[in-house]
Structure formats: C-alpha cells, structure tokens
TrEMBL record:
Domain J as annotated: residue spans: 23-87
HAMAP family assigned to the protein according to its UniProt record, in alphabetical order: DnaJ
Record-linked PROSITE patterns: DNAJ_1, DNAJ_2, ZF_CR
Domain CR-type: 143-226
ZnF locations on chain (CR-type): 143-226
Keyword Nucleotide-binding: no
UniProt-recorded name of the protein: Chaperone regulator
Pfam families assigned: DnaJ (PF00226), DnaJ_C (PF01556), DnaJ_CXXCXGXG (PF00684)
UniProt keywords, alphabetically: Chaperone, Metal-binding, Repeat, Signal, Zinc, Zinc-finger
Length: 377
C-alpha cells in the first residue's frame, strides 16, 4: 500500500528528469543528434536576438542567459555527455567533483562573438585572421548587422581530413610498421655504436601511406571556401570597433581553428558632399553663396538617419567658421557620451564677376573659394 502511494510521485520525478534532460536542446531549438555546427549556428542566431546590447528587454536578458548556458553545455563534448546521461543534476554533481563554476554567459557571448581570443589549454590553436571592414558612416550611427565573406580553409568534406580517396586507400607504412618512427644505428666513434630513433621519411611520421589521393583536396586534407559571417555594429560604435568570431579561422586536422577578428571603420567619402567623423563628432561642410554669407541663410540638412536638421543664420558668416550643434553627433556608446555636430562654412565666389568686385569680395571674405570648388552637403 505504501509503495503504491509513492508510485505516482516517483513517476512524476522520473518524467521531470526526462523533460529536464531535453530542455537545453529545446532552448536552442535543435534535435538531440544535432551536429556541433548546427548547435553553434543555433546559438549564434539566438544569442544575437536576445543579447542585452541588442535587446534591452528584461525577458530577453533572461532568455539570453538560458541560451548561453545551453550552448556552454551542448558545445562541450564532455559536458554534453554528462548532461545526456544525468540531466542538470548530473551536471551539478560533475561540477562539484571538479570544484568548478558555471561561468558568465556574457563572457561566453564575448568569446564567441567579440571579446577575447581566450580558450583553455589543451589542443593547439591555429593562426587567427584580422580583417578590416569598411561600412557607411550611417551604419555606425544607427547600428546595423552586416554579412561579409572571408576566405577560409576547412577540413575536406570528401576525405574528412585523411587526404585519401577512401579508407581502403590508407595503408600501414611498411618501413616503420605503422609506428611513424624508425631506429637507425649511428657510429659515435670507432668501436661504439648507438641506436637513434628518427622520424620515418617514407610516411613523414604518420605511420600511414596513401595509395590514392583524395580527388577533392588532392591530398592536402583541406579545401578553400568562403566563410560568411555577420558582424553586429552597435549604434555609436567607435572607429576600429572589433568583433571576434571564435573558431572561424582556417581549420586543420592538426589544430583547433583560431579566431577571426573583424575591425570596423567608416568608409571615407571621396569628392563632394557627405558627412565625416571626428571621434564622437559628426563633421560636415556647407558652402554658401556671397549673398548668403553676407545676409544670412536657412538650410535643411539630411542627417545620417534621414532626419532633417535645420540651420539658420543671420548676418555675416566668415569662411572657415564652425558652428556646433550640440547632441547631434554620434550616439552614446558605453562610456563614450553622445557627440556634437560640427558645420564648417565656406564661401564660393560667383563665376562671372569683374576683377574689381572680386578683389572687394576677397577683402571681406579672404578665404573664399572659386565657384568651381563647390563642395557642400
């Protein structure tokens, strides 16, 4: 009777354990047999959606922590195995045995997307890649996610890094009997000989030889591809803003892939018009006619986000004079306050004017430019 009264409770506990064992997969929206690449892709998509720098909603922040914890477990082969066998309780026991902590989900996002080249000890890291990305200043003003491609070597999808046409084409080296090393006798001096272990020259120390090379990589084990990445540029990002893509550099069978570091700069505007940048400030030039410089003017400028900014002045405006419009520069970014807008004025002389008039105008506006040098927003 006592046992039968406990059966519903035991069944509920067992069911809860099964559901918990599935929850991390549900959070990332992947199946239990998902590959490492599928898990990574799901994490990247969800973490960008819920990261506090992108989505300030409190519920999104909680979701981001869940997504980060799920990825931290499922992306680690050892932790994933522990979780599949014992669920979250198994993870707690595992962490207790190792006397380790859970880690910060924000640090995980930073390592994955843009914060450091770290990585625990163990497998050798391959070379990283630094690439510069030029974008419109408007993209750095308003914030934008931009996709781009970088060249990348990946482990051959045909031979999976063996370099052979098939598994049947991989044979044990007959010179070293699969050891990769051979013993050679060397005479130290007359009457004394020693044995020296050396790398097998026939197989290069691999212990294997390939009868037929892979037709896709020609035995190189890796192939050239273009890797598509997406960098999120936050509003007001400074020049040289960096985002790090962990493990997205060249692959190899001999090392763990290094990181791709993307450094973002605003595109230089050549020729006439356009806004420039100086730190957190936005810089532009407005060219006035002589009449506007003498009598005043009213202009409507188009801001980087498409808004209209009206500037109006009465009286004389000298060439080279700079007007400051507070709070109309780049948006604030972390500890960088919002910048200002700087309008530099220049005056253009009319093309058809007598030399006497020109000289008089130059006395009033000594830094004027010719009519052909018309450069304005």
């Amino acid at each position: 009777m006592l046992l039968s009264s406990f059966l519903p409770v035991l069944s509920l506990l067992f069911l809860s354990g099964c559901l918990a064992a599935q929850s991390y997969y549900q959070i990332l929206g992947v199946k239990r047999d998902a590959s490492e690449g599928e898990i990574k892709k799901a994490y990247r998509k969800l973490s960008k959606k819920y990261h506090p720098d992108i989505n300030p909603d409190e519920a999104a922040h909680e979701k981001f922590i869940e997504v980060s914890k799920a990825y931290e477990v499922l992306s680690d082969h050892e932790l994933k195995g522990v979780y599949d066998r014992g669920g979250e309780e198994g993870l707690k026991q595992h962490e207790a045995r190792k006397a380790g902590g859970g880690g910060n989900p924000h640090d995980l996002f930073s390592r994955f997307f843009g914060g450091g080249h770290g990585g625990g000890g163990g497998e050798q890291r391959g070379p990283g890649l630094l690439t510069n990305l030029e974008v419109d200043l408007a993209d750095m003003y308003a914030g934008r996610t931009i996709e781009f491609q970088v060249p990348r070597k990946i482990v051959c999808t045909h031979c999976h890094g063996s370099g052979a046409h098939s598994d049947a084409d991989i044979h044990e080296c007959g010179h070293c009997n699969g050891q990769g090393m051979v013993i050679q006798r060397h005479q130290v001096f007359p009457g004394m000989v020693t044995n020296v272990q050396m790398q097998c020259q026939h197989c290069g120390g691999r212990g294997k030889r390939i009868a037929r090379q892979c037709p896709k990589c020609s035995g190189q084990k890796v192939i050239d591809t273009l890797n598509t990445l997406a960098v999120h540029i936050p509003a007001g990002a400074p020049e040289g803003f960096e985002e790090v893509f962990h493990g997205e550099a060249d692959e190899s069978t001999e090392w763990e892939a290094g990181d791709v570091v993307v450094r973002v700069h605003s595109r230089k505007v050549e020729g006439q018009g356009g806004w420039g940048r100086k730190d957190a400030g936005i810089v532009g030039r407005v060219t006035l006619s002589v009449a506007e410089a003498l009598l005043g003017f009213k202009r409507t400028l188009t801001h980087l986000d498409g808004r209209s900014v009206v500037i109006e002045r009465k009286g004389t405006t000298q060439p080279g004079e700079v007007e400051v419009i507070e709070g109309e520069g780049m948006p604030s970014y972390h500890d960088i306050p919002q910048g200002d807008m700087y309008i530099e004025y220049s005056v253009v002389l009319p093309a058809e004017v007598s030399e006497t008039t020109r000289q008089k105008l130059l006395e009033v506006f000594p830094d004027t430019v010719n009519a052909s040098a018309h450069d304005e927003l």
